[in-house]
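Review this fold:
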Amino acid sequence: MDRYPEFTQAHTEVPWRSMRNMRNRMAHGYFDINLDVVWETVQEWLPELLNQLSKIQVNDISSLPR
């Protein structure tokens, strides 16, 4: 989000902030991670996220600066 704000703003249907928050929680939460939330995310939210990401054009991704 911080490195490519134009890209994330162009694809607001993708829950960028939620993904970042989940990653931070997993990386820094250690023993405080609620496995029920993780399972719900995998079962309910991940399929929709994969659908959203598949709609992003390859051209959009390849145009990002490296």
Observations:
- Residues 35-54 form the longest helix (20 residues).
- The chain has a mean pLDDT of 86.
- The radius of gyration is 14 Å.
